[in-house]
Specification:
By secondary structure, the chain is mostly helical. It contains three helices and no strands.
Protein backbone atom coordinates (compact mmCIF):
# COMPACT_ATOMS: atom_id res chain seq x y z
CA UNK A 1 0.00 0.00 0.00
CA UNK A 2 2.82 2.40 0.77
CA UNK A 3 4.77 2.06 -2.48
CA UNK A 4 3.96 3.05 -6.01
CA UNK A 5 3.82 0.37 -8.65
CA UNK A 6 5.11 0.75 -12.19
CA UNK A 7 1.59 1.64 -13.38
CA UNK A 8 1.29 4.49 -10.92
CA UNK A 9 4.59 5.93 -12.11
CA UNK A 10 3.50 5.51 -15.72
CA UNK A 11 0.31 7.51 -15.08
CA UNK A 12 2.23 10.25 -13.22
CA UNK A 13 4.89 10.53 -15.93
CA UNK A 14 2.23 10.59 -18.66
CA UNK A 15 0.44 13.43 -16.89
CA UNK A 16 3.67 15.39 -16.40
CA UNK A 17 4.58 14.79 -20.05
CA UNK A 18 1.21 16.04 -21.30
CA UNK A 19 1.45 19.17 -19.15
CA UNK A 20 5.01 19.79 -20.39
CA UNK A 21 3.98 19.36 -24.03
CA UNK A 22 1.03 21.73 -23.59
CA UNK A 23 3.18 24.43 -22.01
CA UNK A 24 5.95 23.95 -24.55
CA UNK A 25 3.51 24.12 -27.47
CA UNK A 26 1.87 27.24 -26.07
CA UNK A 27 5.27 28.88 -25.64
CA UNK A 28 6.32 28.05 -29.21
CA UNK A 29 2.98 29.27 -30.61
CA UNK A 30 3.18 32.57 -28.73
CA UNK A 31 6.79 33.08 -29.73
CA UNK A 32 5.97 32.50 -33.40
CA UNK A 33 2.87 34.75 -33.45
CA UNK A 34 3.63 38.08 -31.77
CA UNK A 35 0.69 40.18 -30.55
CA UNK A 36 -0.97 42.33 -33.18
CA UNK A 37 -0.32 46.05 -33.16
CA UNK A 38 -3.32 48.36 -33.49
CA UNK A 39 -3.58 50.33 -36.70
CA UNK A 40 -3.54 54.11 -36.35
CA UNK A 41 -6.99 54.50 -37.98
CA UNK A 42 -8.82 52.16 -35.60
CA UNK A 43 -10.98 53.58 -32.80
CA UNK A 44 -9.51 53.57 -29.33
CA UNK A 45 -10.77 54.41 -25.87
CA UNK A 46 -14.19 54.50 -24.27
CA UNK A 47 -16.68 57.09 -25.47
CA UNK A 48 -20.32 57.48 -26.44
CA UNK A 49 -22.72 54.64 -25.68
CA UNK A 50 -19.85 52.40 -24.61
CA UNK A 51 -19.04 54.89 -21.85
CA UNK A 52 -22.63 54.61 -20.60
CA UNK A 53 -22.33 50.83 -20.47
CA UNK A 54 -18.97 50.97 -18.68
CA UNK A 55 -20.22 53.46 -16.08
CA UNK A 56 -23.31 51.34 -15.51
CA UNK A 57 -21.35 48.13 -15.02
CA UNK A 58 -18.53 49.58 -12.94
CA UNK A 59 -20.29 52.12 -10.74
CA UNK A 60 -24.02 51.33 -10.71
CA UNK A 61 -23.71 47.51 -10.79
CA UNK A 62 -22.26 47.14 -7.28
CA UNK A 63 -25.01 49.33 -5.82
CA UNK A 64 -27.65 47.16 -7.46
CA UNK A 65 -25.93 44.06 -6.05
CA UNK A 66 -25.85 45.68 -2.61
CA UNK A 67 -29.58 46.38 -2.75
CA UNK A 68 -30.38 42.87 -3.93
CA UNK A 69 -28.30 41.22 -1.20
CA UNK A 70 -29.81 43.45 1.47
CA UNK A 71 -33.34 42.80 0.18
CA UNK A 72 -32.77 39.04 0.06
CA UNK A 73 -31.48 38.97 3.63
CA UNK A 74 -34.39 41.06 4.90
CA UNK A 75 -37.00 38.98 3.05
CA UNK A 76 -35.47 35.75 4.36
CA UNK A 77 -35.51 37.06 7.93
CA UNK A 78 -39.12 38.14 7.46
CA UNK A 79 -40.18 34.72 6.16
CA UNK A 80 -38.26 32.82 8.85
CA UNK A 81 -38.19 34.89 12.06
CA UNK A 82 -36.50 32.06 13.96
CA UNK A 83 -33.26 32.73 12.02
CA UNK A 84 -32.59 35.97 13.89
CA UNK A 85 -31.13 34.30 16.97
CA UNK A 86 -29.02 31.64 15.26
CA UNK A 87 -25.25 31.95 15.17
CA UNK A 88 -25.09 30.05 11.87
CA UNK A 89 -27.34 32.68 10.24
CA UNK A 90 -25.10 35.47 11.53
CA UNK A 91 -22.05 33.63 10.16
CA UNK A 92 -23.80 33.21 6.81
CA UNK A 93 -24.65 36.92 6.62
CA UNK A 94 -21.07 37.84 7.50
CA UNK A 95 -19.72 35.49 4.83
CA UNK A 96 -22.19 36.84 2.24
CA UNK A 97 -21.24 40.46 2.98
CA UNK A 98 -17.53 39.61 2.93
CA UNK A 99 -17.87 37.83 -0.43
CA UNK A 100 -19.87 40.75 -1.83
CA UNK A 101 -17.31 43.27 -0.61
CA UNK A 102 -14.45 41.25 -2.08
CA UNK A 103 -16.15 40.95 -5.47
CA UNK A 104 -17.26 44.58 -5.54
CA UNK A 105 -13.88 46.00 -4.51
CA UNK A 106 -11.25 43.61 -5.84
CA UNK A 107 -12.87 42.20 -8.95
CA UNK A 108 -14.25 45.45 -10.37
CA UNK A 109 -12.05 46.92 -13.12
CA UNK A 110 -10.57 50.31 -12.36
Amino acid sequence: MGTFSVWHWLVVLTFVGVVFILFWGTYKLCKRNPPARPKPNEPAGVAGWLLLLVVGLVFIGPYLGLGRLLGDIFSTEEMYPSLNGLQAWENYKLAAWAAFAFIAICCNPD
